[in-house]
Amino acid sequence: MPSGQSEWDAKHRLAAEAPASEPASIVRELLPLLPSGPALDIACGSGRHTLLLAARGQHVTAVDWSGAALEIVETRARSVGLALRRILSLPGCGTRQTVVDPSDSAVPGMASASDVARSLQLRS
Question: Is this prediction's pTM over 0.85?
Answer without folding.
Answer: no
